[in-house]
Amino acid sequence: MQPIRVLYVFTARKRRLAEGVAAMTDPDTLLFGYNWLQARPRLEAGLAGALTDEGRPVRVEVHEPEYGPLGRALMGLVGRLGPDVVQLRVLPHFTRNDVVFLTGGWPLLLASRVIPASRRPRLVWLNMTLTNLLRAGGVRARLIAMAARMADRIICVSSDQQAYLSRRLGLPVSRLPVVRSGTDTRFFDKALASPVADGSIPFVLTAGRDAGRDYATLCLAVTGASWPVTIVCSPRNLEGVSVPPNVTVRYDLPPRELRDLYAAARVVVIPTGSDEDAPVGSDCSGTLVLLDAFAMGAPVVITSRRSVPEYTVNADTVTTVTVRDVPGLRIALEAAMGVSRDHTRAPNPPPDSGRGRRRSHGRDSDARQWGAGAPARPRSTGDFAAGVAAVFREFA
């Protein structure tokens, strides 16, 4: 059986990340299944979601050319136009493959039309930010819409993305398959975590560098709280935000240290902001941190978004709150920290006392907790790899 030849196109160089994944110093989430299919070309989802090795082989490769000083200078100039434009360098390698998997690089969809149809590979685009790019409007959005229609498949990570793109681009849902994201469950394993300083003191953890994070609302909600909060983000996430004294900020923390914090935290909070239809950040902001927290066994408080139910359907430790609802967020965090409304500490609840209960905190009925019964296992990057492999095999 001939393997399906797939070229992965990333928007950034991944060699160091792949080395970190092999050394277990980095999670493999942003390899988007590449390492799984490299190691297990026949990977597919079997009965009840179990991963098997019975599918038609998928041979994956990535092209990351090495440059001398002149080449690096040239790529630096091209890169000022954006990382998507830099990826035009891989166009000559398209014809050696059956499928090209784009995790970005939308200009390649337009440029691929210079290749005769008989030699052009199938083009699959992973939608991580496409919805928000289109919502931004303007000339760029019109060009991206034109490019998107040239893709043979656009993989969506939520049904909400699929519905929006079907309306916006006029595409049938058959061209917009849903493959939900996963996390590196081999990396985000509580057994691998090391103790953190003052780890015996219960604290709230939030993490994420996406532009869609709403740390301003979080800081308002935790001001004056009796418990500490740790924010792991980039400096740009806190520009213009007043950080209260009980909040510790850690910038761009290495993944292993973040894993340690996940393991020690009493609760992980994922605040996302603005109108969900506003073009800010990634399309499903907060999803990957949600999956990381699941893998580490941490309870979660998260802002309600249309994509959240798909990822929490079997989770019983997730509470949602309305966007920008400072009082609702404070109430949810106090409940998670075991603090009563008069700000005295309540006894810690038994480990299973919250199982199966629906919890909601917020101004409207949209804020709720989905699901009853703990998930059998968190959704992994292996599950994601099997999902994208199934899309590749459609073209065989």
Characterize the structure shown.
The chain has 396 residues and is α/β, with parallel strands linked by helices. The chain folds into two domains: 193 residues, 3-Layer(aba) Sandwich (Rossmann fold), CATH 3.40.50; 172 residues, Rossmann fold, CATH 3.40.50. The chain is built from 14 helices and 14 strands. The chain has a seven-stranded parallel sheet, with helices on both faces. Strand 12, helix 12 and strand 13 form a beta-alpha-beta unit. The protein is globular.
SSE map:
Elements: E1 4-9, H1 15-22, H2 34-39, E2 43-45, E3 51-53, E4 58-62, H3 69-79, H4 83-86, E5 99-102, H5 107-111, E6 122-127, H6 130-135, H7 138-148, E7 153-156, H8 159-169, E8 204-207, H9 215-222, E9 229-233, E10 247-251, H10 255-264, E11 267-270, H11 287-295, E12 300-303, H12 308-312, E13 318-321, H13 326-337, E14 360-361, H14 381-393
Parallel strand pairs: 1-4, 1-5, 5-6, 6-7, 8-9, 8-11, 9-10, 11-12, 12-13, 13-14
Antiparallel strand pairs: 2-3
Which terms would index this structure?
Rossmann fold; alpha/beta; five-stranded parallel β-sheet; 14 strands; 396 residues
| Estimated radius of gyration | 22 Å
Number of strands: 14
Number of helices: 14
Strand residues, percent: 5-15%
- What kind of sheet is the major sheet? 7 strands, parallel
Strand order of the largest sheet: 10-9-8-11-12-13-14
Query: Which class do the helix and strand fractions yield?
Result: alpha/beta
Shape: globular
Stated plainly, the CATH topology of the largest domain is called: Rossmann fold
* SSE succession: EHHEEEHHEHEHHEHEHEEHEHEHEHEH
Unreliable stretches, pLDDT < 50, 5 or more residues? 343-376
The helix content, as a percent range, equals 25-40%
CATH class of the largest domain: Alpha Beta
